[in-house]
Amino acid sequence: MTEHTLTVAGVTVDTRHWIGGERVASAGTFTDTSPIDGAVLGEIARGGPAEAAAAVAAAKAAFPAWAATPRAERARVLHAIADGVEKRIEELAIVETTDNGALLRSHRRGVMPRVAHNFRFFADWLLTLDHDDFETRGHNNHVSWDPAGPCVLITPWNAPLMLATWKVAPALAAGNTVVLKPAEWSPLTASLLADITAEAGLPPGVLNVVQGHGAEIGDALTSHPDVRRISFTGSVPTARRISASAAANLTPLSLELGGKSPLLVFADADLDLAVDLAVEQYDNAGQVCLAATRILVEETVAEEFTRRFVDKATRLRQGDPRDEATDIGPNIHPRQLEKIDGFVRRAVAAGARAVIGGHRGDGQYYAPTLLTDVDQDAEIVQEEVFGPVLTLQTFTDEDEAVRLANDTRFGLAATLATGDPERAERVSARLVAGTVWINCFFVRDLQAPFGGSRHSGVGREGGTWSFDFYCDLKNTVTAPNGWNNHG
User: Quick count: other Cβ atoms within 10 Å of Cβ 98?
Assistant: First the structure.
């Protein structure tokens, strides 16, 4: 360890910003701790307006050359980045687990391979991206995707590298340059990503990484007149602030925000499957925006569903996420733990019953919790907790199920468990959600549109939708026989 590095399980991480292809320190720092045991990992460079301005300037300077780089060469570099990720999966996995508390086994087997896939997918998609020309009264129309310019990408702490690269990969593939601002509670793998991109041959300034606390650096990034796109994943209050900041420059936004998604369990469902889907919502200690935290069960099977759920959920093992046998790790930060506990205590005080859980564990661990006897307008039903807390309500028919499912300000996702294909089609058509899963959960293909409705977000990313956002679409119209008019 040096003044500007820290070591996690033998992996050295530079704690400075990455701006214009160089490491840049700041006068101030902030402390990064591990949610596993509260241990201090190190001091991270704490950026502000000066670092924001320098990063945007570096991105602006690098943009013309990167935008002019042929598609095939951009794709080659992205594949080289994916190669670098794959070579360092074990290092990335242990650093991210230590930094944000998610399961090491998940990082090794699923998350980090998906990080590499993010780069490969958008590299390959770029090479197929085209519209057929079409005619209008004999005039030829040709649609093209022009790189937009410097992009600011602000990413959350619950899946730091996967969600960062979900944005970084298409932005770079489209020919843009990037300023990435990772969450201050889990900044380390973004720094490692900077190293990997440099080793892969990404030109200086094409990717910049700046660290800092919220508005201290965020406002300077999102209000900068040279920024052409802003993509943010996080909370609704922060999105409102970003939207206001970007408004002066009319900077286009992509916002993937919170959720309060329902899981609808009908009496004709495979109850074992439905229980598996419900227990899966405790994944990542409930810190998943897509989680179906509101379980809605048809009244005739609610008692049996609850019995099977309790049996399965109480067998989950909570503990050190580095242990292969652990099912649920810690929550990210003491502040988040206080928030979770506050939601549950207020719900119980208002009459809710904790069927399981309902209390804190040691350190930053919160027991998997299921609350019943909750009203539809209760805070615990209407607001995102972002912890291992589920509610259970019952319904009598499809109309009531849909009414309850749609009765929040969110609309990110929904999950259905039913054995009737016609019912699945009817109900899914009536649900307000960006994604609906039927008898499955968390199946995401990168070519599909992803985003939320209502307060769950603005816009869609994924596949061609990502390029639509990260590019300025241009239509070039050529007159018939236009080349002979001035012969």
Answer: 23
